[in-house]
Input
Amino acid sequence: MATLSEMVVQVLTARLTKKEMTLEEMQKEMTAIANMIKGIEGEAIQAPEPTQEEPAKPQKVNLKKVFKDKEVVCLLCNKGFTTLKRHLAKVHNISDKEYKKQFGIPAKQPLVAKNYSEARRQGALDRGLGDVLAKARETRMSNLKAKKEAGGKAKGKAGTSK
Output
């Protein structure tokens, strides 16, 4: 039969294939695994000492490994997707903002594959949506200016009545 330390190493090695850990996290994990194995073998389990943990720091993420050209890898289940937002909401019941905060991903980083994003952008340009947007903005600005001018004239007339 394997020794306690051999079993701990086997379990910890399996965990490390799925999740990167800091040295502190590995030490805590080793202690927890050893206590669980001792409990299974019938020895007394030491309750972990209650420690005042710092607020959870976002995990460091290598953005190049997660945000690839053809896919975005979900850090919760290690599966690749073209877009990640719907997957996070349906499968993991977490918002994209919470996900980004949990893993320290910049807020402006889109959760879509680079090729997909570029294809959508190019399709919009091909359909002339940029021109439509520019015209809509121009119309909106002229309408706002007209309202301001009309509002200024109406106030001026209201103040001149006897």
